[in-house]
Amino acid sequence: MAAYILRRLLLVIPTLLGIMIVNFTLVQFVPGGPIEQIIAQQQGQGDVFAGFAGGGGDNLSEIENDLTLGGSGGEEKYAGARGLPPEFIEELEREFGFDKPPLQRFLLMLGNYVRFDFGESYFRKIGVIDLVLEKMPVSITLGLWSTLIAYVISIPLGIRKAMRDGSQFDTWTSGIIIAAYSIPGFLFAILLLVLFAGGSYWQVFPLRGLTSDNFSELSLIGKIGDYFWHIALPVLASTIASFATLTLLTKNSFLDEIKKHYVMTARAKGLTENRVLYGHVFRNAMLIVIAGFPAAFMSVFFGASLIIETIFSLDGLGRLGFEAAVARDYPIVFGTLFIFGLMGLLIGIISDLMYVLVDPRIDFESREG
């Protein structure tokens, strides 16, 4: 197993390198880089920094303070740069590192990333790591609680459906969870806001944020209650679609195991149904469900966070990545890509380890051989 883990860890390096090469190459062909963004802003042609309002614009302010509008002759490298002195454009290129060839910039970036130095945002005077850590609580809240709730409800429900396969209970619950799965997450989130957050009916839950303004003044019990009061709607909105997949996966896994010969043998020996179910079937049936927990958490953590964060006015990683992409804030774009790509690859290894933990009979070494 140690050799398998070592091989998987070594495979992370070329995989991550490939991800960075593909995305860096694509960015070279995308119009509207950070310099073009600043030029458009100065010419009054866009509001590309609106998403960064309130997030600190010290770097941008310093750049704007250096601007001197005036005539300039010669051909311009950037569309819309007429009226800006060439010296200023060159200064911008040095500021953002675009005075170097793409290959050199890419190698310098990788060298910094190996040391986990992701630099600073172009338009905020703050490091990429600090930004990620600042936004992390929101995304962890959505990902962790959504995954836990889905597992706590779906696994017992799936087992119950397997034991009563074909009954009215099985039919009705299947209809309900499939209907819930078919509802788009953003539509369900809006519905929750309209019904329970003061939209048109009841003001039961707060409209935005993870905590109240007076959170620091509350008691420990009050802080816990305030936290769960704020996350109730966002977590429910991000969880609703995951019930169907996990419940049906659990049900089908149990049905497959229940039909096997060792279950009939256990029943023939006079074991109780609960003993057969939880002593023999559970471990085998839950293998794929439990082992998939890390991947399920990551999918919720990064998948639906942008829409949920936007609807419920939560400032998390989803909005950070979207705003960085719109403003072409490449340190954030590539820094988060590297961090989350690395996390995703490591989660894949952890998922394999979970399989072995749940069922020690699994041997990845022999499978590879």
UniProtKB/TrEMBL annotation:
Domain of life assignment: Bacteria
A Pfam family hit: BPD_transp_1
Membrane topology type: Multi-pass membrane protein
Keyword Acetylation in annotation: no
Keywords, comma-separated and alphabetical: Cell inner membrane, Cell membrane, Membrane, Transmembrane, Transmembrane helix, Transport
ABC transmembrane type-1 domain residues: 136-355
Record localization: Cell inner membrane; Cell membrane
GO cellular component annotations of the record: plasma membrane
A Gene Ontology biological process term: transmembrane transport
Family according to the record: Belongs to the binding-protein-dependent transport system permease family.
Protein name (record): Microcin C ABC transporter permease YejB
Species of provenance: Tritonibacter litoralis
Gene it is expressed from: yejB
